[in-house]
Amino acid sequence: MSDIETRTRAALTSLADEAPSGDNLWPRTHRRITARRRARRLTAATITVAIFVMIAVTAVVANSRHTSDLQVQGPPSSGVPTTTVSQSHLVSNLGKCPASLPAESMTTPVVRSLRQKLVPIAALNVRICDYASIGALIDSALLKPVAAARLEDETNRLAAVARPTACHGPPHPVFVVTFANDTQQVNVNNAGCAVSNGVLVATPTKKWLNDLAEYATTSTSAPATTTVSPSHIAAKLGPCPSTSTPGPMTLRDAGVRGLSKKLVPIIAVAVRVCTYQDRPDGSVAARRGRPLLAASQLEDETNRLQRSPSERDIGGCVAGPLEVFITFASVSQHVSVLDQVGCADAATNGVLYVVPTTKWRNDLGDYTLPNPGG
Amino acid sequence: MRRAVKTDESGERSDAFARLFAAKRRSLLRFAYVLCGDGQVAEELVAEAWARMYPKWRRDRIVDPAAYARSVVANLWRGRLRHLRVQRSAETHVDAAARLSSSHDTAVADRDAMRVALDGLGPRQRAVIVLRFLEDRSEADTAAILGITVGTVKSQASKALATLRSTLAAEAVEGSLE
Predict the structure, then answer these.
(1) Do A21 and B31 touch (CB under 8 A)?
(2) Which of A114, A134, A177, A362 has the smallest number of Cβ neighbours within 10 A?
(3) Does the beta-carbon distance from B34 to A8 stay under 8 Å?
């Protein structure tokens, strides 16, 4: 052992002898132990209370999100719909509609009782995606609890059929409706000519389709990033003119190609049907219609009308008692079709003449919704 | 009944801890005192260390309470050093200078010189020196208590002894000149 170590050892021992005895140290130590124990308990209690408060606040916030009935949805997103069974907080996870009609199956195999009901869950939220016949997203809406429950009920009341009916012609506009609660979601669509949840098939009613279109129309928000929103187009169509003054059709639809081949040679995303009837006193009563989205079905039906054998210029015809003036609008163009019932018994876009059918005329009546003002 | 049993058990544990404290108090105070050089601070460190030890000791998570207590004291001391060092350093220098000048006893003079020399050490070096040369703990024990490696203990002890040697030599020269 070196000298310095010896000296250090001796000096440290001597120094340590000066240390206090600590006779009264235990009471102080005991007090500290008790104080620390209390502090620990207080901390634990505070943390517990804080957790409860956080849970309560979260619950209140979650409830408050359910208060508004209808939630407007923003611009469409790309991709496919969310998975059939999602995690919690579906309210926020439903997301936006895919930009195009998803090709994948709409089956929801994890949800039970799909064979008994189209929507076998208690839906808290509903997302409606409205696709044109070409598969492009026209409109969308997010419904919240009250409207969701109403639509769920209406959907479940659709009459079930054994198998889907065969579809003729181009595909109809498709509604992909996603019903969701906090743990599950069910997709219902009318991609065929029937409504299906992937398992059960039912026949859609006109009311059901109209209601969906109505939901999609009324909750449409103009996406900030695009100027070709279908709702903008519908808005541009405006209300029907108070008098029937169709004028030369070709001028109205200048720049539209293919008018000689098809009555409606555009991909219509909105349509306005205006009906005018002559009164005995010579005045014209306008049964105004308002623009509707999801016009593909009427476009398709109109284009299937048979060509008139003798193409007569009905523009020079004396107006009959009833005129129907239909305006189809695509993203960038308009096409107008005039049907003068009782005059030439033909409908025309100004270039092409077709023979209207009774069914088509009846359907026009369905499309002619009254203006909100009456 | 269950609560009463629990209270009894708690009381027994508390008594056992008090007995353990009584048995280890003195040696721990010596360690703390040499480490910090102040009686009141040493008591403070020891009381705080045992208060912090108690919850773990109660759950039988401490194998060697004495070593654990030293570890806590050393850590507490290092944590509080900056604040305490300012006060203690000034006081110690004054006291040491007074003692050195007044004392003619070699052992006492050596002790006072050592006190001053210890002030020149860093907290870790000082803890190593105290554990190795006051408590005669092995390098492995010292390393375990301070949470460092044996190699660090060796190097810190070596550097500390070199510092002490030079400081004591300087003090001796100053003493002979006077």
Answers:
(1) no
(2) A362
(3) no
CB proximity list for B113: less than 8 A, separation 6 or greater: A11, B96, B100, B167, B168, B171, B172
User: How many Cα atoms are found within 13 Å in the side-chain-facing hemisphere of A315?
Assistant: 15
Q: How many helices (H) and strands (E) does chain B have?
A: 7, 0
Enter the DSSP assignment of A269.
Answer: S
The number of C-alpha atoms within 13 Å of A300 and in the hemisphere containing its C-beta is 14
The secondary structure element, H or E, covering residue A254 is none
A5/B161 Cβ within 8 A = yes
Helices (H), chain B: 2-36, 39-58, 65-102, 106-119, 123-129, 139-146, 150-177
What's the pTM? Answer: 0.41
Do A143 and A70 meet the contact criterion of CB atoms below 8 Å apart? yes
Contact between A96 and A74 (Cβ < 8 Å): yes
Strand partners, A292: A271
Place of tokens 């009456």: A374
Spatial CB neighbours of A87, under 8 Å, sequence gap ≥ 6: A93
pLDDT in tens, A44-90: 999 999 998 988 888 887 766 544 444 444 444 443 333 333 333 34
Q: Say if CB B35 and CB B127 are below 8 A apart.
A: yes
Q: For residue A260, which phi and psi values (nearest 5 degrees)?
A: -80, -15
> Phi/psi at B31 (nearest 5 deg)?
-60, -50
Beta-ladder partners of A287: A275
Looking up tokens 């100027």, which residue turns up? A227
Mutate to test the interface with B, among A2, A9, A15 (most CBs of B within 10 A): A15
CA-nearest residue to A35 within chain B is B51
Provide the residue type at A143 as one letter.
L
Question: Tens digit of pLDDT for each residue in A223-256?
Answer: 333 334 555 566 566 667 666 554 444 445 556 7
Of B26, B25, B34, B27, the closest CA to residue B130 belongs to: B34
Of B51, B130, B161, the CB nearest to A12: B130
ipTM over 0.95: no
- Is B168 in Cβ contact with A4 (below 8 Å)? yes
Task: Give B-chain residues touching A11 at CB under 8 angstroms.
Answer: 110-111, 113-115
Contact B117, B164 (CB under 8 A): yes
Torsion angle defined by CA atoms of residues A20, A24, A26 and A28, in that order, rounded to the nearest 10 degrees: -100
For tokens 């806590």, the residue is B72
Q: Which of A295, A154, A296 is nearest to A211 (CA)?
A: A154
Is B129 within 8 Å of A13 when comparing Cβ atoms? no
B130 burial level (CB within 10 Å; 0-12, 13-18, 19+): buried
| pLDDT, tens only, A281-334 | 555 555 555 566 556 777 888 888 888 766 554 445 555 566 777 888 776 677
